[in-house]
Amino acid sequence: xxxxxxxxxxxxxxxxxxxxxxxxxxxxxxxxxxxxxxxxxxxxxxxxxxxxxxxxxxxxxxxxxxxxxxxxxxxxxxxxxxxxxxxxxxxxxxxxxxxxxxxxxxxxxxxxxxxxxxxxxx
Length: 122
Description:
Structural class: mainly alpha
Shape: elongated
Radius of gyration: 15 Å
Strand order of the largest sheet: 1-2
């Protein structure tokens, strides 16, 4: 199944929140993203059906292996693109916003090339 941009954003958010806290609930995701409870509930249902997340009886959200793999990929793109844009002199807020838009559409080949090039410049 091809995941839409919004699904990738939810997975990335869960990943970020799990890095900060051992447990994540739908309310945490909604607060972080600024989305309503019904929106988050619907997204979590879709992500569960697709096998990207699981929830326990307490409502704690976990990423499955496939969900974690996608979240790590998006997070890596976001952080590297933000760093690259900031190193070019773009203010951090704008760099992060632009990275967020690009991280979902850039091809694996192009991102790998940017990553290799940026790694050589460091």
